[in-house]
Design brief:
- The complex is a heterotrimer of chains A (352), B (723) and C (340).
- With 352 residues, chain A is an alpha+beta fold.
- Chain A is built from eight helices and 20 strands.
- In chain A, a hairpin with a 2-residue loop joins β11 and β12.
- The termini of chain A are far apart.
- The relative contact order of chain A is 0.12.
- Chain B is mainly alpha-helical.
- Chain B is built from 34 helices and four strands.
- In chain B, the strands form two sheets. Chain B has a two-stranded antiparallel ribbon. Chain B has a two-stranded antiparallel ribbon with strand order 3-4.
- In chain B, a hairpin with a 2-residue loop joins β1 and β2.
- In chain B, α5 runs antiparallel to α7.
- The N and C termini of chain B lie far apart (60 Å).
- In chain B, 57% of the residues are buried.
- Chain C is α/β, with parallel strands linked by helices and 340 residues long.
- Chain C has two domains: 154 residues, 3-Layer(aba) Sandwich (D-Maltodextrin-Binding Protein, domain 2), CATH 3.40.190.10; 138 residues, D-Maltodextrin-Binding Protein, domain 2 (3-Layer(aba) Sandwich), CATH 3.40.190.
- In chain C, strands 1, 2, 3, 4, 5, 6, 7, 8, 9, 10 and 11 form an eleven-stranded mixed sheet that branches.
- Classes of the chains: A alpha+beta (352), B mainly alpha (723), C alpha/beta (340).
- Chains in contact: A-B, B-C.
- Chains B and C meet through α7, α8, α20, α24 and α26 of B and α1, α2, β2, α3 and α7 of C.
């Protein structure tokens, strides 16, 4: 449907509301055809960034480019972006078709053409034949897809999605996000997607921009972020992670010699420097063994059977650790003393 | 945008060259200025020696040059803005300095003969030039910064601020300065003792059986009326939306009737029913052996009359709000195991807060400014509005006293306004979000339902009786004395001589004038009011609170004060409007605008902002968004604004009395004359005719504006079926 | 934006005319029907002149004339009680008409003399007492004959009268009492009457209307208003007080700066003519005409039979006297914050 997809670039963009800084000097670049997620906790500035791209907010400082064009001073009306809102923002007094055709008709496209394009859009999201209904007569998932159709029929350079799935139930959420991803890829759209759900972000994104405290914490592919977190925050935010204080004694190429509670380990150095650091231990990087085995001594405070795996919480001298283990014939029980082993090549180091 | 600025500047230039700058004696209907009025255009006036008009023309020219010559957008916008503002300032200054008669400023500075000869009031040329410069300025302003403003939004703000400044502040200042006037000079020290005098603020009614000061009287009445009308209005709104009450249509008519009743009529009807020799009083006096008293005259009489008159306003505000409470929130509450009462108490009612607050504020202000009811029924119970009237037209005219009382009244309004703001706080009341819901509004619990019936239905019955009496009164020879049936009153008022085809009735002239003027004023009022509401709810700009208050100002000031201040301000150049129909239209637009504003605010704060944003990101500009998304979703508010301003224009009296002229006489002023003359039959027959006319107009409006389509079916839960 | 613009443009285009040279702008402060009659008669006599008439009360008219000073939109002001006309004359808001007043009765000429010709009397109406015969009969109250009767406790709560601060009628009553009994005695008497007063109304004509309908038993007001109510069928009886009574003089003035001065002068001459003054009873106006040759309607209160005082318009019309008397009235008679 569209081939006019565009890039997005921020140059030192600052956004302030009075005294409050919502974004500190932001630089970012999104390549055409990519789906990039803005991920972060509430209030990190991700929605502000999205609204800056949309033109619903104006940058206090810096420049914004869409498709190579400086749009810093253009209001939302004049930017070639479309947005899917968290609340869908379907116009309740218009039919589904009128909603989808809205963007075309305000640009004074001929009525018939607009209606036809709207129907094409509806077909694309699997709602062919729903054009004459009112939004209130559709289910939540259907309304969501109408919102997507309404945004994409305009063939925007950039498609913006503001937590588009937060109003859907878990099952539907997975289904719809796959659809969104599929439509985005088949149309080759540039899309910016805001969410606070890291799993959702991992599932749909080409790249993820993790934000924290009004600035970017890390940019990378889902794999990068998971495998090579640049900070304890990222490690904690992307996937489950146990953060354990450690000391880096020596660096040997890509291998670092580190101590955790006296136990010496050789782990990938991940660009760390000598001195105090933190070790990122994914639940799968830990093993539970009988107390006589080498490892961190601990006691199980919580054990749960989840069908395909076991989840444990183990209280140790370095804090409580979250461990995932295989389903065993004789699982550890609450209260058992254990030794927690660390799989060295799966551990990661981040600065303290 | 550059194009738009240039178009406006071109319009300005053309009107400067081609249209008569000043008001012509014949008005513009008459095309004579085309032939013999060439010398009157701005350009020719300058050549003829009125050099002071030159800056206006030069400003337009300079702005055009700037637009064409400068490429850098921000610089171009800033220069244009400066030039246009300077042009506007020159137009205003020359208008205020060079006048034929009346007050002039800098009198001693300019003494040349041409200047002293003065000039007539501004006309079409001046008006369009000013408008062109204003829009050039506002559009440029929107571009001169970091693209913060949307040209439409900034222009609308600019236009409304300009209009409010000219038609509210400018006249009102004329009368308010009188409060500080002492023997030809002005003094602040004199003002305070007069303002805080016990005549206004005396509280002795609380401790003795003396009466309180007029200010306290007014305040007490206004609070009672505000609360009473809000409660009644809410009951009606709930009956309409949350019950399966059968006679909804009849109720609907009853709730509209009092609004469309000319002043004095309700008061008169009350006297004839409840006065000492009133039908109902006598009936009960005979039945129970009590002595008939004059209880109606005083607080209770005014209070009942105001409840009758103003409940419909509260209803009109609240119906939209009650309808707008999203069913899903009520359903959410019910699924959280709240019962219907709890749902109403903790979910629906708080969500209606903006509506309740607005309804109260309107009732409060209406009561303060009400003039007809206290005049007829007040007796010893003095209130500010009547005291102001008699301070102006009484045996001892005392404009200073009138001004002080008017300031007292404004103080009360301002306080109520502030209190409302504080009560509403900053919570969100949006319930129409873009996420469509198909749920059902919770029906009322039985106790609440009967509570609503018990408050609303007696009122409805009361209204019905009062109106039956009015109809009855128009068909009897002498109401209260001789109840012989007659058509005489109607024939006198609306007779048509069929042999000549002439409208021979005495009421026709004022009837047609009234309808014409109201029909012009109503859409303008709705437009200005709703635009203002849009700006207030949806846009952020500097000085918004002050802006909001200033739009309420004209409503809060009693009509009498407005009427006199309009004469003071607009009888002389630069804006000379007295004796025309325009002054009537303007006074209606700016007096009734606040109702559109309040209703619009209430309705709009229920619309989720993401709807606007969705429209804007889909490429619509603010204007299209307003037209295609906001307006359709505000159907009830638009209807209310249109209806109310139309009806108010027909029924308002206090401001109009001073502004009507022989050519443009209004129905109310005609009716008041007849009432003063004791011709109740004719007055009531005319009123009845007006009521019918307005009913017809309202029905027509309802058809035209239509009903908002959000959910397909009427969603009132049928208790019997579901429980 | 454009829409808003167009609307303003339309509003400007609608600018109407101000006045035509052959139009006469008239404010009439008498009863509507009388106004209509006068206009029709004048236009019949002067077919070239188009009379633009609007009816406003004297207070409203005075307020408007004051506000419009310097650029009046009104040419001539006809009817209504004389005090506001005199005030307008005193404040230089009206101008001398130079009309011949020789045919007029003494009180009308007096009016012209006081104002140096700026306002001329056109009718007179005496102050009187009205009572609702049904109510008094029902309550067994003996009807009043004199001002003094009103002090009697049998009228407790039955008397209604206007407040002189707002009503010219009530001020006339106040001034009449002062001229009849002397200032101090008048205040005492008014205070005594005040004990029986159920309400001081704002409007001067309200008490008689209330008495006509039985909302009050007794009213004080102008007799011609009462005659009119009685002739409509109300059980209102009229009493000329035995001590004598004061009266108002209705007047006509030309506004200073009138655009159609010629027409205004014609109007004044016309309004003073015996012929047109004789026609007032046709429309139920029973004031006594000022032209000595005009016919008086049989229903009109016969001024000859009423004991009229020699009302001193010059003294009691002056702002100084007025303010003094009203201040005394406030403190000695009327409670500025009356009881409910």
């Amino acid at each position: 449907m569209t081939k006019k997809t565009g890039s997005v670039r921020f140059e030192s963009v600052v956004k302030k509301y009075g005294e409050v800084t919502a974004l500190k000097k932001l630089d970012l670049s999104i390549d055409p055809g990519k789906l990039v997620t803005l991920l972060g906790p509430s209030g990190c500035g991700k929605t502000t960034t999205l609204r800056l791209i949309a033109g619903l907010e104006m940058a206090t400082e810096g420049k914004i480019y869409i498709g190579g064009e400086d749009v810093t001073h253009l209001t939302a009306t004049y930017r070639k972006v479309s947005m899917v809102f968290q609340s869908y923002a379907l116009f309740p007094h218009m039919t589904v078709r009128e909603n989808v055709a809205y963007g075309l008709t305000v640009k004074s496209a001929p009525k018939a053409e607009a209606a036809q394009k709207a129907d094409e859009g509806l077909e694309l999201v699997g709602l062919a034949g729903f054009g004459d209904r009112l939004p209130s007569e559709l289910s939540g998932g259907q309304q969501q897809r109408v919102a997507v159709a309404r945004a994409i029929v305009l063939e925007p350079e950039v498609l913006l999605l503001d937590e588009p799935l937060s109003n859907l139930d878990a099952k539907l959420r997975r289904h719809v996000r796959e659809e969104i991803r599929q439509i985005q890829q088949s149309l080759g759209l540039t899309a910016v997607y805001v969410t606070h759900d890291q799993e959702e972000a991992m599932a749909v994104s080409d790249d993820i921009i993790v934000m924290n405290n009004a600035e970017i914490a890390q940019i990378g592919t889902p794999n990068d972020l998971y495998e090579a977190p640049s900070s304890a925050f990222i490690a904690d935010f992307i996937g489950d992670a146990n953060l354990v204080p450690c000391d880096v004694d020596a660096l040997d190429g890509a291998i670092a010699r580190a101590r955790v509670n006296g136990q010496k380990l050789s782990v990938p150095s991940n660009g760390i420097r000598k001195g105090a650091a933190q070790m990122v231990l994914r639940p799968q990087a830990l093993t539970l063994q009988k107390p006589d085995q080498p490892g961190l001594e601990g006691q199980i405070s919580y054990a749960a059977y989840l069908g395909k795996e076991m989840q444990y919480t183990v209280e140790t001298l370095v804090g409580s650790l979250f461990v995932i283990g295989p389903v065993q014939a004789q699982p550890f029980l609450r209260g058992d003393s254990v030794s927690v082993g660390i799989i060295e090549d799966q551990a990661r180091l981040v600065s303290a | 945008m550059k194009k738009t600025v240039l178009i406006w500047l071109a319009i300005g230039l053309v009107s400067f060259v081609l249209l008569p700058w000043h008001m012509t004696e014949d008005g513009l209907y008459d095309a004579t200025w085309m032939t013999d009025g060439v010398a009157a255009t701005g350009l020719f006036s300058i050549l003829a020696g009125q050099w002071w008009l030159a800056p206006a023309g030069l400003a337009i020219l300079a702005a055009i040059v700037i637009q064409l010559a400068i490429d850098e957008p921000v610089k171009r916008a800033r220069l244009t803005l400066g030039t246009a503002v300077a042009g506007l300032a020159f137009i205003a200054l020359q208008g205020l300095i060079i006048v034929r008669a009346g007050p002039r400023i800098f009198e001693t500075l300019f003494v040349s003969e041409a200047v002293m000869a003065g000039q007539p009031g501004m006309g079409a040329g001046a008006g369009i030039c000013a408008l062109a410069l204003l829009f050039a300025a506002t559009i440029s302003l929107s571009q001169s910064d970091k693209g913060q403003g949307d040209a439409f939004v900034v222009s609308t703000i600019g236009l409304i601020v300009a209009l409010v400044a000219i038609f509210v502040f400018f006249p009102v200042i004329h009368i308010l300065v009188r409060a500080f006037e002492v023997d030809g000079g002005y003094s602040l020290t004199e003002f305070f003792p007069r303002f805080f005098s016990s005549d206004i603020w005396d509280l002795s009614c609380l401790i003795s059986n003396r009466s309180c000061g007029v200010g306290i009287n007014s305040l007490f009445l206004a609070v009672m009326t505000g609360a009473g009308t809000t409660l009644l209005g809410l009951s009606f709104a709930l009956i309409f939306t949350r019950t399966d009450f059968r006679a909804k249509k009849l109720l609907r008519v009853l709730t509209v009737l009092p609004i469309i009743t000319p002043p004095f009529v309700i008061g008169l009807a009350l006297i004839l029913l409840f006065g000492r020799t009133g039908t109902i009083t006598e009936y009960f006096a005979d039945l129970l052996g009590w002595e008939a008293t004059r209880w109606l005259y005083g607080f209770w009489g005014i209070y009942f009359a105001q409840l009758l008159s103003f409940t419909p306003i509260a209803f009109l505000v609240l119906i939209g709000v009650v309808q707008g409470v999203s069913p899903s929130m009520e359903e959410a509450s019910q699924t959280l195991d709240a019962n219907r009462w709890q749902t109403f108490r903790f979910v629906s009612l708080p969500l209606m807060r903006p509506g309740l607050a607005n309804a109260f504020l309107l009732g409060f202000i209406e009561s303060l400014a009400d003039f007809g009811n206290p005049l007829v029924l007040g007796s010893g119970y003095s209130v500010l509005s009547t005291d102001i009237y008699f301070a102006i037209v009484g045996a001892v005219a005392d404009p200073a006293k009138a001004a002080i009382l008017a300031i007292a009244l404004l103080t009360l309004t301002l306080t109520a306004f502030m209190a409302q703001r504080m009560w509403l706080g900053k919570k969100s009341y949006a319930t129409i979000t873009g996420k469509a819901d198909s749920g059902q509004n919770a029906s009322l619990n039985p106790i609440l339902k009967w509570a609503c019936y018990c408050t609303a239905l007696p009122w409805a019955a009361f209204t019905l009786v009062v109106y039956s009496m009015i109809i009855f009164g128009s068909f009897v020879k002498l109401w209260g004395i001789n109840h012989g049936f007659t058509f005489d009153h109607y024939i006198r008022a609306f007779g048509i001589d069929f042999s000549t085809g002439r409208f021979s009735g005495v009421a026709w002239d004022s009837y047609f004038t009234t309808l014409t003027i109201s029909s012009i004023a109503a859409p303008l009022t709705a437009l200005v009011g709703l635009s203002t509401a849009y700006l207030l709810v949806r846009q952020k700009f500097w000085g918004k609170d002050a802006f909001e208050f200033s739009t309420m100002l004209s409503f809060a000031i009693p009509g009498t004060v407005i009427g006199v201040s309009y004469i003071m301000a607009f009888n002389f150049p630069p804006i000379e409007l007295t004796g025309t129909s325009i002054i009537l239209i303007i006074v209606f637009v700016f007096r009734n605008m606040p109702v559109g504003v309040r209703g619009g605010i209430a309705a709009m704060s229920q619309l989720d902002k993401s709807l606007d944003e969705a429209s804007i990101t889909l490429g619509a500009n603010s204007f299209t968004t307003v037209r295609r998304v906001i307006l359709p979703l505000m159907g009830p508010a638009v209807l209310a604004a249109l209806t109310y301003s139309f009806v108010r224009a027909i029924t308002s009296v206090s401001a109009v009395i001073f502004l009507v002229s022989a050519k443009h006489n209004m129905a109310t002023s005609f009716i008041v004359g007849r009432v003063e003359n004791g011709e109740f039959g004719l007055a009531i027959a005319y009123s009845a005719a007006l009521i019918i006319t307005m009913l017809a107009a309202i029905l027509l409006l309802q058809l035209l504006v239509g009903v908002r389509r959000l959910r397909r079916s009427d969603r009132v839960q049928q208790i019997a079926k579901t429980a | 934006m454009k829409k808003l613009g167009m609307v303003s443009v339309a509003a400007l285009l609608a600018s109407g005319a101000v006045a035509w040279a052959d139009e006469l702008s008239l404010v009439c402060s008498a009863e509507q029907d009388w106004c209509d009659l006068m206009v029709a008669a004048f236009e019949a006599e002067n077919p070239d002149t188009d009379v633009l008439m609007v009816r406003k009360s004297t207070g409203e008219t005075l307020a408007q004339v004051r506000a419009e000073a310097g650029n009046p939109k009104i040419d001539v002001w006809w009817g209504g009680t004389g005090d506001p006309h005199l005030i307008a004359a005193e404040e230089g808001l009206s101008q001398a008409s130079g009309v011949d007043t020789s045919e007029l009765l003494g009180w009308a000429q007096n009016m012209a003399e006081i104002s140096r010709g700026k306002t001329v009397g056109i009718y007179a109406g005496a102050l009187g007492i009205g009572y609702n015969a049904d109510i008094l009969a029902e309550k067994g109250i003996e009807p009043p004959q004199c001002w003094a009767d009103l002090e009697d406790s049998r009228f407790e709560g039955e008397i209604q009268v206007a407040n002189p601060n707002s009503s010219g009628t009530a001020y006339t009553e106040l001034a009449t009492f002062v001229q009849l009994f002397g200032e101090d005695e008048a205040m005492t008497k008014l205070a005594a009457v005040g004990k029986n007063v159920n309400s001081y109304t704002k409007s001067g004509s309200a008490p008689s209307k209330a008495a006509a309908r039985g909302e009050t038993g007794v009213s004080i007001g102008f007799m011609h208003d009462m005659v009119k109510l009685a002739s409509q069928g109300f059980p209102l009886k009229i009493v000329a007080p035995c001590e004598g009574t004061g009266y108002e003089v209705g007047a006509v003035s030309i506004i200073d700066g009138a655009r159609n001065l010629v027409g205004a002068k014609k109007w004044v001459e016309f309004a003073l003519s015996a012929e047109v003054q004789s026609r007032a009873p046709e429309v139920g106006s029973f004031q006594v005409p000022s032209n000595s040759n005009a016919q008086v309607a049989p229903e009109s209160p016969d001024l000859a039979s009423i004991k009229l005082i020699d009302y001193d318009f010059a003294t009691y019309g002056s702002s100084e006297t007025r303010e003094r008397l009203l201040a005394r009235w406030d403190s000695e008679v009327g409670d500025p914050n009356p009881q409910q």
